[in-house]
Task: structure prediction
Amino acid sequence: MPGPGHFDAHAAAYDRGRPPYPPALWERLRPLVRRGTRVVDLGAGTGLATGPLLAAGAAVTAVEPGPALADLLRARFPTATVLRATAETADLPEGGFDLAVAATAVHWFDLDAVLPRLHRALVAGGCFAVWRTAFGDPGVPLSPFRRRVAEITAARSAPPRPGPGELDTGQWAARLTCGGWFTVRAVEEFAWSVELGTEQVRDLFTTFSDWSAHEVALAADAVRDLGGSVTEHYRTPLVLLDR
Ligand SMILES: C[S@@+](CC[C@H](N)C(=O)[O-])C[C@H]1O[C@@H](n2cnc3c(N)ncnc32)[C@H](O)[C@@H]1O
Result:
């Protein structure tokens, strides 16, 4: 199964295909992000969190190990500080941040290494906002496209990625509070939907590290068969932690 380098290898597809996070999520984070708030964005990717944080007036340090993605971040967000590093190794100043965020990235981290480092990098009273996205909302009846997606993934022989899934927030909260560095302030979920065409499905599904090129082609075929556009329902759980 591909590792975390998958995203850098598909940086252009990621940039084209990944939809932005829903406005309701940013509304929820708004009280934490004021002009000048110092934020570290761990696993920043193409900047789907970095961009809105900068737009809200935050001073953002984007931590991203992928060289292509780090270059893209530097070019797109010249006012951000971009560190080409992992969350486990980034040189973060002690007490240098008011807020840390990990947007659809925390499942790639070695939390035993990251949590104490982040505790040190955040000020007293600082906050860590962690969110992921479930691409496919289990609470919404299966659409014809989701039925085709289920058929594609049912044909896999490899076991699914180990560890808690996107919506296992209880398990994530337990992992994120392990070691006593953080406590849970709130757990919330945001349901949202997006209209995707054939090419965006091709790009988006290419970014999923557990999807093969053949499976991506089948998903794009499905969209084409269904008229060239599908409505997708996604869910983004947020775990807010206090330092
Ligand atoms: C699914 S992408 C999310 C990117 C972006 N935060 C977003 O919301 O679109 C996961 C990102 O985590 C990065 N990543 C993987 N392992 C990492 C690690 N150990 N430390 C920091 N970032 C990591 C990948 O390079 C990738 O950019």
Notes: The chain has one domain: 6-136+162-193+235-242.
